[in-house]
Amino acid sequence: MSSEFISRIIGMIVLAVAGLFLGARFAELGGGSTYLYSSTFFLVGALVGLVLTPYFTVRPFRSLVTQLRRVPAQQLLAGMIGLVIGLIIAALLVFPLSLLPSPFNRILPFFTAILFAYLGVIVLTARAQEFFNLIRGYRSGRMVEGAEDLQSPPVLLDTSVIIDGRIADISRTGFIRGEMLVPRFILNELQHIADSSDTLRRKRGRRGLDMLRRLQEESLSPVRIIDADIEEARDVDDKLVLLAKRLHCPIVTNDYNLNRVAELQGVPVLNINELANAVRLIYLPGESFTLYVLQEGKEPEQGVGYLDDGTMVVVENGKQYIGSEIEVVVSKVLQTTAGRMIFARPAEGNG
To answer: Considering the entire predicted model, what is its pTM?
Structure first.
């Protein structure tokens, strides 16, 4: 039997008995038939208990449990600590408030307890990250001014960056110091992609799940799946941006549209593509390096090769060197929307 069914039965019995006594009381006051009043109130109480009891017992409790599951554990713990602190402050104010003249000495302690309990919950949940960083600063013996910066904030991982896979290599280098959080709706999206009927999408989804497992096993920073959800948003990107604002943490992505939307809403973004462009080797005009000429270029007599980071190198008069490795001299470097492009010419002395 379900808990809702049991609550209906209990509610029906309790309200039926209450209706029985209430009907007898009305009969005494009104001078009517005790049997008629008692039976009527008995049936009404039983019906009301059977129909309405779950709406006042089981369903509100289930709704509360569902909401608590969606709240991050850190936020929940901060709220409980804030509630305790607020009640302690209110308890300290009870004695001086009790010395006030009546009726203030009875009313103000009650409202003070509610006020400080509310303020404690609101303040601690709003500043949960700074609060716990402050505690970590004390525990590590490195409590200094600005202790909230002693530990890097967590980061939220987007679906695209998990599928891309480069985050797994980056995480092993230690560049990302904070905890990496993967919301449950991101994991669900990966699973949905992995179950797609389209072969390419299915491969991408399975790659994302494999990369997530690799992250959990090899990353220097902890990776955690969180159950936090944003009911007011339906799109995954919107959920991610709103969750990042709520947790006060950046988003790691390589999705251009998500990057721009997040920046417009004041959410910091760590873009893997921008990081890749930033760490590419920079060659200045006149510098030389060795290049394998892979294919013919668009223009006559051009050859094309690629650096280890994927940068395209166009070699003037390099067609004759296709399939061989030669020394080239940089003549020009262009930065385009597609990335960096290098123009070079064969160095003197190539065979």
So the answer is: 0.48
**How many CA atoms lie within 13 Å of 309's alpha carbon, on the beta-carbon side?**
15
Q: What integer best gives the mean pLDDT of the chain?
A: 83
* Residues 37/38/44/49 CA torsion (nearest 10 deg): 150
The candidate with the shortest Cα–Cα distance to 211, out of 246, 186, 244, 174, is: 186
Evaluate if residue 141 carries a pLDDT over 90.
no
Structural domains in the chain, CATH included, are 3-63 (no CATH), 72-151 (no CATH), 155-278 (3.40.50.1010), 288-346 (2.40.50.140)
pLDDT digits (tens, 9 = 90+) for 173-224: 777 878 888 988 898 899 999 998 888 889 989 999 998 888 888 888 888 8
Give the span between the Cα atoms of 42 and 44, in whole angstroms.
Answer: 6
Strands (E), 9-159: 155-157
Query: Measured between alpha carbons, how far is 23 from 41 in angstroms, rounded to an integer?
Result: 5
Rounded to whole angstroms, the Cα distance separating 248 from 103 reads 44
